[in-house]
Amino acid sequence: MPAACKKLINNVEQCVDENLEGLVAVNPGLQLLEGLRVVVRSDVGPNVVGAGKVSLLSGGGSGHEPAHAGYVGPGMLTAAVAGSVFASPPPHSILAGIKAVSAPGSGDDCALASSDKTAGRRGLCGTLFIHKICGALSDEGKSLEEIVRVAKDAASNMGTIGLSLTPCSIPGSGSSFQIADDEMELGLGVHGEAGVKRTKLVSAKEAVTMMIDHMTNPTNSTHLPVKKGDRVACMINNLGGTSMLELNIIAKETIELLESRGVVVERAYCGTYITSLEMAGISITLLHLDDTLRRCLDAPTSAPAWPRPLLPPGAVTRQTPSRMPRETIQTEVIKTGPTMATVGTAEANLLYDCLKLAGERLVAMESKLNELDRESGDGDCGSTMSRGAQGILASLGSKEKPSLPVSCPGELALTLASAAEDTMGGSSGGLYSLFFTAAAVCLQNTVSPTTYCEALNAGIQSMMKYGGAEPGDRTMLDPLHSAWMAWSAALSSQSPVDAFRLAVEAAEKSAEETAKMKAHAGRASYVSADHLNNPDPGARAVAVWMRAVLEALSS
User: Fold this and answer.
1) Are 160 and 87 contained in the same domain?
2) pTM: predicted TM-score of the whole model, two decimal places
3) CA 79 from chain center: how many Å?
4) Residues of the chain with pLDDT > 90: what percent?
5) 264 - beta bridge partners?
6) Which of 28, 195, 391, 511 has the greatest number of CB atoms lying within 10 Å of its CB?
């Protein structure tokens, strides 16, 4: 299969049918009509309307999952008819799926700017609001006429605008359209139909502003009027290839923008609701609310794909929550003795220089360490180390007025432990926090080359105890342990700087030798040994900061 349509399917011809079979396999409240691409509620038999309530039928081309079959269930659709990918279902399938009358059309597209005659607004993510409203009214036993009236009113008070970063690829075919890496397209349809304009890639905040402004622009013939005091429901939809991290950022920016304009966002939904295969992009839907529509959106449904946002107990309207007050906690470093050993100005200045140069070197090595980490991990070792280094550099202050306790090595070690845990994060941050916390104990009472060497060993032992790795496991412990062995052996016969130089050289050699080691710990242990041809990135990082410390001492 061409790389352009690289997909986990069995074959193009059966992918739609097997997709529906998978849906009903994990949702036994649904069933398929024999020989047809029609999903119906399992509590509603063929040709049965059921309890005198209006039945709801919807559907469309496949490739937009979870729409539309994912919205079949009590409180929403009675049945859904699926066509081939991006193609309308055939009439005989629609006829077979009809139980009563489908919900009225719900075009909600706000991209069309021309006042010329067109086929009308396209049905986009707002269609799902209509599904939910009609399903709730049906469950309440409302008449077909009343459901039609409420749905038409809702459709006329709703708008959607889409934004795409990449195309999708139809199974068996290539990309549906082309767009440059630094471009995005506003107002495209869910099949990749052309939008209203292309622009250079902008930030999430700018993208949201562009979308809302276009949706509400009075000169746009399909615009949705939105003004201060209006109550709306807002749906942030993933077009298929957008990460949840990005979606949440878009949701934040959308709600903040609307609220800054005095719009009351009573309901908000964020997730994957109607897609365009794997297209990276989003859509934003706004629906003007009244008490009836809000009641319908809140009504229970067991349709598998309908979102259920968490609201506080008893809440009637959604409100952006204020931050929980942070209780007063102990933030000062807890010292194990009445005082901790301090050093003179010259040595404090040396420690300052060591921190500064080590931090700068780690920042400079970010991309190289990330590249190494892509072989054995998740490609973020350099970013993690850089993040911690940048945090330390930002809080270092000037040499004349340092902000970190460089005159008290023990307290400095505890401060670095806290910085590693809070700023670096990840497993590396936790391990370095253990390392510096244990090292601080050795520097409480006296500070000398010997106690620095002892502190290194204490840190190593702590990492081994709580991290589970040992020297020889192809981790950062290898250069640290080699450094300690060389340092402790040379202290009695070499000057402090020369002894430390031997330690650094041993660390660098050990870091390079990890390229030939079998990984027994860390993410690299999950990777085939055949793929591990370069030094461990964590080990290389140790060699980098130790070399920087040596250079600062030597100068």
Assistant:
1) yes
2) 0.71
3) 33
4) 54
5) 231
6) 511
